[in-house]
Structure formats: C-alpha cells, structure tokens
Write a structure and sequence with these properties.
Number of domains of chain A: 2
Shape of chain A: elongated
Number of strands of chain B: 11
CATH class of the largest domain in chain A: Alpha Beta
Strand order of the largest sheet of chain A: 2-1-3-4
Helix content of chain B: 40-55%
CATH topology of the largest domain in chain B: Rossmann fold
Radius of gyration of chain A: 18 Å
Number of helices of chain A: 7
GO molecular function, one term (chain B): NADH dehydrogenase (ubiquinone) activity
Strand content of chain A: 5-15%
Number of helices of chain B: 20
Structural class of chain B: alpha/beta
Largest interface: A-B, 45 and 58 residues
Strand content of chain B: 5-15%
Number of domains of chain B: 3
Oligomer: heterodimer
Distance between the termini of chain A: 35 Å
CATH topology of the largest domain in chain A: Glutaredoxin
EC number (chain B): 7.1.1.-
CATH superfamily of the largest domain in chain B: NADH-ubiquinone oxidoreductase 51kDa subunit
CATH class of the largest domain in chain B: Alpha Beta
Cofactor (chain B): [4Fe-4S] cluster; FMN
Strand order of the largest sheet of chain B: 8-7-11-9-10
Structural class of chain A: alpha+beta
CATH architecture of the largest domain in chain A: 3-Layer(aba) Sandwich
Protein name (chain B): NADH-quinone oxidoreductase subunit F
Helix content of chain A: 40-55%
Radius of gyration of chain B: 22 Å
Function (chain B): NDH-1 shuttles electrons from NADH, via FMN and iron-sulfur (Fe-S) centers, to quinones in the respiratory chain.
Chain lengths: ~170, ~450
C-alpha cells in the first residue's frame, strides 16, 4: 500500500470533481466521512478499480487518513483492490440460483472464458467474480456486468452474452 | 382476492414517473399528512395499523417510532434500510425498481411524523441502477414541491439522500448500516444504546425497511384501523413474498397475511405449484436465515391444522416444528434438492458475510462451512453431525448481532429435520458425491 505522498497521480475528471463535491455536501457539517463509500464508487467508475493512489486522493478530498479509506475499501466486496478486465462478470453463487442450475451454468461460463473465479482473461476483456445473492432469486441463475443484470441464464444465453460483450 | 396496498398500480405503464404516479392518486397521502395531520396523529395511525417491520424482525413499527428520543436542538434521522441481501429475498428490489415514488412518498410521511429534516435511503451498492431510478424520482418530487424547503407551503423541510452500500450483507443489520452510512466498516454496534436514542451521528434515529415505509401512504389515506382489518391476528395487513426455487411461477406476490401456505404454493394466483413431474420436499419460508421445514410441516402445524402465511402460524411450535415469516423470502425445494449441499451453500454465505467482530460467529461460521463441505464431498466423519449441532449451539445467542443466529439456524434445522440425509452422505461417500446425486429416503439415489 502506498502512502498519500508517494503517488499523487490519480485525480478525478472535472465532471467527477463536481459530482464529488455535490456528494460531500449531502451530509451534515463535520460528517463528510459519510461520503467515503460513494466516492470510492466514483473512483472505481473512473479508474476501473480502487487503486491505492486513488484511495489516497479520496482521503485527501475528505481530509481523513489514508488508512481510514483502506480499511473501508477492504471490508466491502464491491471495491476491486486489484486491476480488473474491461468487463467484470459477477455471478451469484447462493442457494436459489444454484437450485435453478446455477452451478452448471457457471461451470460453462468458466469453461467458455477459460478462467476461474478471481481471474482475468489474457486479453484483459473479462474478469470473473463471485457475489453473494444479487436479490434476483426468482430469476436465477443470474450475473451482473456493471449495472446490468442478466437473468434466467442458460449455457446458450451465456454464450450469446459473451459474444455480445466481446464485440 | 387479496388487497393490493403496495402493488395496485405497479404494472401501470410509466408508474416510475412522477406524473403517472400522481395520476394514480400518488402523493395525496403526503398532502393529507402535512396539511391536515400532526406528527403524533400519524404515529398513532401507524400504531393502530399494527404493521410489523417487514425487514425480517417483525417488530411493531409504531412502537419503534414511539421510542424515538426527542430532545430539543438535536437532529433526528430516518434511515430506510434498502440493503436487501438475504438469499431468497428480492421484494424491495422489485418495489424500488418498479414504483420508486411509493417509497419516496412513504419517506416524506414517515420523516414528517418523526420530525426528521434529513433522511437517508441506504441501498445495497449492487443495485446501482435502482439507485439511479430513486435519484431521478427524488429530483422529480423535489421539482414538484414535495421535497426540499417548505414542502407544500407547510414550513416543513426535508432532504432525501440515497446512499450506496459497498457490498456487505451485514449492513442490513441496523447498527452496522449506520456505521456504514458514517463511512466506516459495517461492524454492528453494541446495544444499548439503541438507535432510537443514539443512532446516526449519535442522534435519535429510526431505521425501517423499504416495505414498511412504503405502507405508510396507504395507512394515512385509509386509516390504521382499515389496515389492521386486513390479515390475521397480530399479523395485520399485506406482505410482499419473494418466491423462488422449484415452483412454476417465481416472482414477488402481495398477499393478505393469513393465506394457507398450501394455497400460496399451489394456487395459480401465486406460485402455481411445484414444477411439472416433481414433488414438494422442503421449504425455507422467510429468507435463508430462517429454519428449513420438510413439506409436511411446511403445510401443516404439528396438530394437523393448515399452516398459514403469518408471523404466528409460521413460528408455531418454535424451532422444533416451526420456522419464521422473516423477510418473506420463500424458497421451495423439490425432491431433486440435496439438503446437505444447500445447507453448505447457505453456510458458505454466512461465513463469507460474517463481519468478523465476534469470535463465535467469525470462527463458528467457518467451522460449519468446513464440516459441511467435507460431508458433501464424501469425507465426512461419523461425529460430524453432532459437531455441527454443537457449533451451531455455541454461535446462537452469543454474538453482538443476529448474524450468528442467522448462520446457526439453517444448519441446526436441516439436521433436525433431515438428519438421515446427512448420515447417508457420511455412510455412502462415493455415491453421494456423484453429480446430481440426491438422497430420497428409501429410494436412495437417482
């Protein structure tokens, strides 16, 4: 983990600076640390992952210690603490999805991409992650790519989605 | 025909917009509440309604509101718990996505009743698209004068903030949610003090579920007595049920509390029966954390009467022969389901989601997952079943928050009702680990 002075390279785009300021202003005076999770989402949206340099930048923005950002980012599963591929496929591995054939579909997904959970394809296109329950149990098996949900998955549908995303 | 309190207009095209929602009678409850009622009168109606917390705990909402400390000069907060992450539960997702203004309207009424001028909707971060829908709805309501400064000329101000989570089931626990909202790790707090005394930013705070808050518009419009007239006994009103698993029609259904479980599973109006050619084996009635029941106990009480979809009927018999309504996450298993594999799956979830603060939960959930894994994969020891029961007992009731109980109950209940299936896995390791192998009593394998 770098310290806040080693690499100041990450900064938000002007639009994101404005968005960050709007987020910080939502909270009562003196309670701006509440903006931490939303700012980490903003950082990840820009950088693709939650980089140490980015976390240092967020710490400076909120006037808190970098360790306060690291300990939060490492607690929550949505923040990618390592670089990821262009598309992060997060598949739901919990009970209801598995009841509907999720395990077989995810095995096919791994085979199709040639990677296991936590890995990225050599061309940098796809990263595969497990996620605990996506709150779409009636439409399982399900996975999510960025903000989009793909539901009622079958092996054929998985192939179609991968083809679509690969274009 | 069931009363539709939350879903009456959910399929109206464009209902996610202010104008269409308004045309369907939306925001009339805000007008009535702010222009004609006092905050105390609204709290009284909610108390009369007898609505119980729809997040899973089932605590009376009006009573929770009346606990709120009201010192002068200190802000009070309302926080909506939209961190829905329990396997089997997806009703809040459905409600917020399809009819966001129902929640916004409920937030305005509830905030006014509680004297809050800034309220938060904490949504699980995975639902980022829903967060955008809510933000858009808030902007629309603000532009029409239902939010912001001097709402409808009443002098009442309210700002609504949508807060994204970062992906942690534990943040559904109300004090962990408040920690997260303060920009920290989601570790549950010791109670007391309860949030009603020291909650968000150490101020008096009420945390309510999405579905609970969304009922307040109907209660204000129709009165608490009318709400209490629906349902059965102390299970008043309607309930959203998220139905999944081996049924013909998975989805979210609004039912009057008190419908027989059998009708809910088999009637075309709801789940439409077990998928063709299969038999009903087991039920998780209220989200993965509640005890699993075999088919016979799911449909009937120990005395032979029909079991009903209500807080009391589902818990009838305690954990020996009953379960809980919980959040209404209704998961149906047919005879192809391996109970051991499903229990391991749930156990893996709770191990992953334990925040690690309490040793019984941090260590115990890991042990349970490990032992269940070895039984499922053909390496079980004869003493493993009793070991699991022992570990579950040592977690239950010994943690700061209820995640420990939530992790222990699925394991303890699966062994209580399906012990022979665990034993069979240990006795037949090679057969049990065949792909698709399922224990079916005397029939053994398929």
């Amino acid at each position: 983990m770098t310290t806040e002075t080693t690499n100041p390279a990450v900064t938000f785009t002007p639009e994101r600076v404005a968005k960050a300021q709007e987020i910080i202003a939502r909270y009562p005076e003196g309670k701006q640390k509440s903006a931490l999770l939303p700012l980490l989402h903003l950082l990840q949206e820009q950088e693709g992952w939650t980089s140490p340099e980015g976390m240092d930048y967020v710490a400076r923005m909120l006037n808190i210690q970098p360790i306060e950002v690291y300990e939060v980012a490492s607690f929550y599963t949505m923040y990618h603490l390592n670089p990821v591929g262009k598309h992060v496929i997060e598949y739901c591995r919990t009970g209801p999805c598995c009841l509907m054939g999720g395990e077989e579909v995810y095995a096919h997904l791994k085979q199709r991409l040639g990677i296991d959970t936590g890995q990225t394809t050599v061309d940098g296109q796809f990263t595969l992650k497990e996620v605990e329950c996506l709150a779409a149990c009636g439409m399982g098996p399900v996975f999510q790519v960025r903000e989009k949900y793909y539901m009622n998955l079958t092996n054929e549908r998985v192939d179609e989605i991968i083809d679509e995303l690969s274009k | 025909m069931a009363t539709k309190i939350l879903t009456e207009h959910i399929n109206v095209p464009g209902i996610e917009t202010f104008d269409v929602y308004r045309k369907q009678g939306g925001y009339t409850a805000v007008e009535k509440a702010i222009k004609t009622m006092t905050p105390e009168a609204i709290v009284e109606e909610v108390k009369k309604a007898g609505v119980r917390g729809r997040g899973g705990a089932g605590f009376p909402m009006g009573m929770k509101w009346s606990f709120l400390a009201k010192p002068e000069g200190i802000p009070r907060y309302l926080v909506c718990n939209a961190d829905e992450s329990e396997p089997g539960t997806f009703k809040d997702h459905y409600l917020m996505k399809n009819i966001p203004h129902l929640l916004i309207e409920g937030m305005i009424i509830s905030s006014f009743a509680l004297g809050a001028n800034k309220s938060f909707i904490y949504v699980r971060g995975e639902l980022m698209y829903v967060i955008h829908i809510l933000e858009k709805a808030i902007a629309e309501a603000k532009a029409k004068g239902f939010l912001g400064k001097n709402i409808l000329g009443s002098g009442y101000d309210l700002e609504l903030v949508v807060q994204p989570g970062g992906g942690a089931y534990i943040c559904g626990e109300e004090t962990a949610l408040l920690e997260s909202l303060e920009g920290k790790r989601g570790n549950p707090r010791n109670k007391p003090p309860f949030p009603a005394v020291k909650g968000l930013y150490q101020s008096p705070t009420v945390v309510n579920n999405v579905e609970s808050i969304a009922t307040t518009s109907w209660i204000v419009n129709h009165g608490g007595d009318a709400y209490a007239a629906i349902g059965i006994g102390r299970s008043t009103g309607t309930k959203l049920i998220s139905a999944s698993g081996h049924i013909n029609k998975p989805g979210v259904y609004e039912i009057d509390l008190g419908v027989p479980v059998e009708d809910f599973i088999y009637a075309d109006e709801w789940c439409g029966g077990i998928r063709p050619g299969h038999k009903f084996k087991a039920l998780v009635a209220g989200g993965s954390s509640v005890p699993i029941l075999p088919a016979n106990l799911a449909l009937t009480l120990a005395n032979g009467e029909k079991r009903l979809m209500s807080y009391e009927s589902l818990s009838d018999g305690g954990f020996a022969t009953g379960t809980m309504l919980g959040s209404g996450g209704f998961i149906v298993f047919d005879e192809t389901s391996c109970i051991v594999r499903n229990t391991w799956n749930f156990s893996r979830f709770y191990h992953h989601e334990s925040c690690g603060q309490c040793s019984p939960c941090r260590e115990g959930t890991g042990w349970m997952e490990k032992v269940l894994h070895r039984i499922e994969y053909g390496h079980g020891h004869q003493q493993d079943i009793d070991l699991l029961v022992d570990v579950a007992k040592k977690i239950e009731g010994n943690t700061i928050c209820p995640l420990g109980d939530a992790a222990a109950w699925p394991v303890a209940s699966a062994i209580r009702h399906f012990r022979e299936e665990f034993q069979w896995h240990i006795d037949h390791p090679t057969e049990a680990t065949q792909p698709g192998a399922v224990y079916r009593g005397e029939m053994a394998l398929v």
